[in-house]
Write a structure and sequence with these properties.
200 residues; alpha/beta; Rossmann fold; 8-stranded mixed β-sheet; two-stranded antiparallel sheet; 4 helices; 22% helix; 26% strand; globular
């Protein structure tokens, strides 16, 4: 039996392949260093805005060099942190490791533009595997996994949902010399793998 909760993202990806009767994913559009695929076949097409490996083609996830309806499965693992940039010294390590956006609006635009582009390249009944995490930004909880489902609803339906528990927990971003403020929100120690199926 395949569970919806795991602490191993490779296990989740393998479960998605199995449940959808796929041998591999057609494309990963934010390939990074490829750690997703240490224990499974690499996708047929690998893209990244800043390629780290020779075989990865430079491309934005919002403008892919792929024909319409040419993929049955696409993986998208974007940055999820906001208010994190290398220019902010107290967050520089996190920014370099995870990437990020200036604001939640920037995150939302990137996600929405990518969803629209994936709707173009994915064929009917194909899937978009979308990794995301809810975040607290400017003292407000943003339920990103719900937002993604809503943003995608014109083209996709939510077919499956997996929860990835955190093995390691990131430190709270904090300026040097400042005291930790009183906690206002629950700490988020999980992320989601949404399996979105294209409607037509």
């Amino acid at each position: 039996m395949i569970p919806s909760l795991s602490f191993d993202q490779s296990e989740i990806l393998a479960s998605i392949l199995h449940l959808n009767k796929l041998d591999y994913f057609d494309a990963d559009i934010t390939f990074g260093n490829g750690k997703f695929y240490q224990d499974m076949p690499r996708p047929r097409l690998c893209f990244d805005i800043d390629p780290q490996l020779d075989f990865v083609e430079q491309a934005s996830s919002a403008k892919l060099p792929m024909p319409d309806n040419s993929a049955q499965s696409v993986v998208f693992d974007p940055p999820f942190l906001t208010y994190v940039k290398a220019a902010r010294e107290h967050n520089s390590i996190m920014a370099k490791r995870f990437g990020g956006y200036w604001s939640y609006d920037d995150l939302a635009k990137h996600y929405q533009d990518t969803i629209k582009e994936c709707a173009r390249v994915i064929s009917a009944k194909g899937i978009l595997v979308f990794k995301c995490q809810d975040i607290v930004h400017n003292h407000k909880l943003h339920p990103t996994h719900l937002n993604v489902v809503n943003w995608a609803s014109e083209w996709f339906r939510l077919k499956d949902l997996f929860i990835l528990g955190a093995k390691h927990r990131m430190p709270i971003p904090q300026q040097q010399g400042t005291a930790l403020k009183q906690q206002k929100h629950a700490r988020i120690f999980h992320s989601y793998f949404l399996v979105l199926e294209k409607l037509h």
